[in-house]
Amino acid sequence: MKLVVRKLWKNEIERRCALLLKKNALVESELPRIFRFLIEKPSDLSIDSLICERGNLYTLFERVLVRRELKLCYELSSGKIGRDLFKKNRILGALLNSDPFLWDKDLQAFDKLWESYSKESLSFYLRRALASLVICKEPELYTLHVDYLSKLLKRLLSMLKNFPDEDFEFLCQHLEWFFTGTFNMGTEVNYLEIQTLKASLMEVIFDRKFNLGQDKCDLTSFSEDRIIVLRDHLEENSELNHIRKSIDFLQAEYDIVYLGFSEIDYVIEISDTFKGKAYLLPRKELKRSLEFVRTLGAKVCLYSSPNSGRLFNQSAYLVSKRVASFQVHFLADIVSSGIKEMDFFALGNAYSEDNLRHEFGENFWKLPGIACNIPSTVFSGVSSKANDKIMLSSGNLFKLNTEVLKAWMQILKNVDNSSLVLMPFSSTQTRAYELAFRKLLSSVMNEFGVSRDRVLIQDLQGQEAVMKAIKQARVYLDTYPYSGSTSIFEPLSLGVPIVSKKGINFRASMGESLLSFLGLGHCVANDEEEYIRKVSDLLDNDINWLEYKRMQIESLKSFQGSLRNSLHSESLDAFKVLFSKNNLNNSDKLDL
Description:
Shape: flat
Strand order of the largest sheet: 3-4-2-1-5-6-7-8
Mean pLDDT: 75
């Protein structure tokens, strides 16, 4: 009799799961029933017997996670069933077991962990904190998540200095992976707090790893009319070219030195490839690198290496020790550096300072426009693909959340014969999330009934290949709520009409601010409904599409003459003001 009951019960679970998977039904109503059924299972039957990599139950719950059904994840994690169900898969277990009401108990357990140190337990808590942020897409829960994350990081910071030598490297590796995933937590998140904690962790780790100890710096030694541009590397790419074009006009007034790191033992000069001087610094000899940079005596350091989501960033560590009188976060990130020795964040006057002050620990140094180079148009005629209804986005997959993907699927449904091209793998950091992204995309496509042949994912590297692909598009899609920044320059310079959306903070409003500054405010939608309507209209209406293209080209052409020269003149004045100042404390503020 027991064998019959067990078989019937197991068959019923399999039948219900298979039905949901086949119909791609909404799991909100059916999954709780399955869970109640699981609770009533025969006492001598193990949950584990139902779990395997290709089992229906495993696949069903994996789909729940990929779709980021947060409330269901909370329900599944409550009680013994949720824990038993995924105890064989630590990642899924960490994802499910992310109820914020249990976090205080977690932190108490983490405190006790120090008394009975366990690498496996530390690894679990780090994964759990990150997983909570990955699946959380509901704004009202962000505060709870980030509060938990902040408390966890503060505990790590307090114990890091005394961490066992043999396991120090292990923890550092987990922290690097951990921070990679925290950069796109949401527009409501207090990135200043997270970045400040991360910068403190970075400084402690590097001090210990390279045995640098206490550091003293004489600010009076930084007196030369010299600007150093500090990056993590000096490999030729679109970012470096953009930075150089933004400041090359200063060469007549100031000595500009570019600095980057490489896997070498000594400082090497590579000035042949730059208009000014350039040096490669030894990545593993940080003390030697720091001493060399300080001998340059530069008055201004433009820190231009992204460190959001990254813990081990040698260039960020150098500025945390002070390498110039004035250290400026310049064309590097769209969040605060969190570094206490960073004096200013270079902010274009196209942005509203009043709405941004709470997001940054640095003072604002106001520069004209958007604080960087406006590209020249390279448009050379109507594209041969002008009649194809192709919309394209080169936003990396961290920006392609459920919200924006659903909007794009709705556009595909609205416009017959339209297609979508995505280029989400611009960074090596995205590779770890490729499978999850493809599953998420597939789920959203199925929800809207969009066939696979209408969405193309291209894996392109290098600016030339990306530009060639963008030129074939009819409309470029800016992402939201994580707006594009320099990525918008490519379709802009090619004359490909862009549609963006208004945002609520700096990260979300960069596309809006750039387009409005160029006189292209008509390309910015006020809400999602208007965004969908604008894109659909550009795909379907040739007259409007040509008008958008004409206005975009004319707007860029206006920057190639007197207006560009005027912006350069105002930027030069801003640098002269900075060079004229003595050393300032962090309570001072520069406004132009």
